[in-house]
Specification:
Structural class: alpha+beta
Radius of gyration: 20 Å
Distance between the termini: 22 Å
Order of helices and strands: HEHEHEHEHHEEEHHHEEEEEHEEE
Strand content: 35-45%
Number of strands: 15
Oligomer: single chain
């Protein structure tokens, strides 16, 4: 009720004054969404000035953000799933800090792991109002090997292969549950990754079934891999699901993670992962393969419009 009242008051104030200009970068898969079109038109009728751009290929988001700087917009709205948020966040931190617009979020993807855990409203009009009028909050972003970024989570191991291989039609039909179903269908590929992981006051070596390094809390369509992570504490949460007793480890982890003896946890501003035979991390949907990874937090690198009661904020 308080959240709705807050948005109502801000909406009333915006009518008396003006909405700040914003640019919505929309994943091409959502371009034909009639409900979204109606929500945007409704806000435009209230006086909002919302520019819309649709992505077609990788690199479009960065080009649109540069265009937005020329338009003088104060907010870039990410319209899509976790991959779209990641692409926009990564492009924003390439800008000088003084030039970075605030990021808003419009969840239109399959799993929407980051938006869901952050408490972004599912109703499009409410999400748009929050993205344009919500209070800007400084949040962390993580960088891998001084180049690639993620705002939500890096996942490695069996879970990464399942997330990247799940068919698009299955995702469209079943949403986040599709990752689990496809994983059960691919048990023949279940194999841990041997690696060594170091961080501040942390060191582990062994066989990892699933690795979650979280700035946010959930991945893979709702799996709470890093349930205590915060996006503004300058820390990353690590959870390793070990490969000791593969099937028991997997099912205990999925059904009763708090009781699993196969979970190793840690927290650090950085982690280094060394894998002698190489491995792949999924960075909010973007795969990155190699044998060495250094993952570190960039504290407060982005301004993001989030709900006032967002559980990801300390």
């Amino acid at each position: 009720l308080c959240y709705t009242l807050l948005l109502t008051l801000k909406k009333g104030a915006a009518r008396m004054a003006t909405y700040p200009d914003s640019l919505l970068i929309l994943n091409g898969k959502s371009a034909g969404n009639d409900l979204l079109r109606q929500a945007i038109q409704g806000l435009r009728d209230d006086g909002a000035r919302i520019h819309v751009r649709v992505t077609w290929e990788k690199g479009d988001a960065a080009r649109y953000i540069n265009e937005a700087l020329g338009l003088g917009v104060s907010t870039i709205i990410s319209g899509g799933g976790d991959g779209t948020i990641n692409e926009i966040a990564s492009a924003l931190i390439d800008l000088p800090p003084a030039d970075r617009p605030v990021m808003g979020i419009l969840p239109l993807g399959t799993a929407n792991d980051f938006a869901t855990s952050a408490g972004i409203p599912e109703e499009l009009e409410k999400a748009l109002q929050l993205a344009i009028l919500g209070k800007a909050t400084a949040v962390d972003i993580a960088q891998v090997n001084d180049k690639t970024c993620f705002i939500n989570m890096a996942t490695g191991g069996f879970g990464t292969r399942i997330t990247s291989e799940t068919p698009e039609k299955l995702k469209a039909a079943l949403g986040g549950v599709s990752y689990l179903i496809h994983g059960l269908m691919r048990m023949d590929t279940l194999k841990p990754d041997r690696c060594e992981i170091r961080g501040e006051d942390f060191q582990w070596q062994g066989d990892a079934l699933v690795i979650g390094i979280g700035n946010g809390r959930q991945a893979g369509g709702g799996q709470q891999l890093c349930p205590e992570a915060l996006i503004n504490d300058g820390q990353l949460q690590l959870r390793i699901f070990t490969g000791d007793g593969l099937l028991p480890a997997l099912f205990t982890t999925l059904t009763q993670p708090e009781e699993s003896p196969n979970i190793i946890a840690g927290k650090s501003a950085w982690f280094e992962v060394n894998a002698p035979h190489g491995m792949t991390f999924n960075l909010d949907g973007e795969p990155l393969s190699g044998t060495q990874f250094r993952i570190e937090v960039l504290p407060g690198a982005l301004q993001c419009r989030l709900p006032p009661d967002c559980v990801l904020l300390r």
